[in-house]
């Protein structure tokens, strides 16, 4: 079973929230909302997509490269932990 299948419910919930946020942007544009409001909505979507991306990459590293919590090789475990930290920092 892949890690995406194990996390399917959680990931789909995040995607559905994103869908709702995108629909809010569409409604705001149709209603000719002030640009500041639309920009805030877009920034929220960007943050949500970035968070989802970071989670997917971290899960990928843990599943397919090395899980720092379970790897018997301390050097590889530390390398995976460092990579996950860098990705999280980069995608903030």
Protein described:
This protein has a single domain (3-90), classed as Methane Monooxygenase Hydroxylase, Chain G, domain 1. The mean pLDDT is 94. The chain is 82% helix and 0% strand. It has 92 residues and is mainly alpha-helical.
For the structure shown, list the relevant keywords.
mainly alpha; 4 helices; elongated; 92 residues; 82% helix
The CATH homologous superfamily:
Metal-sensitive repressor, helix protomer
Please tell me what the overall shape is: elongated
Helix and strand succession? HHHH
CATH architecture: Up-down Bundle
Helix-residue proportion: over 70%
Largest sheet composition: none
Distance between the termini: 30 Å
Low-confidence stretches: none
User: How many beta strands in the DSSP annotation?
Assistant: 0
Specify the number of helices: 4
In CATH, the topology is named Methane Monooxygenase Hydroxylase, Chain G, domain 1
Proportion in β-strands: under 5%
| Helix/sheet category | mainly alpha
Q: Under the CATH scheme, which class?
A: Mainly Alpha
The whole-angstrom Rg is 17 Å
Topology readout:
Layout lengths: L2 H4 L1 H23 L4 H31 L8 H17 L2
Helix pairs in contact: 2-3, 3-4
Summarize the structure.
The protein is an all-alpha fold. It is built from four helices and no strands.
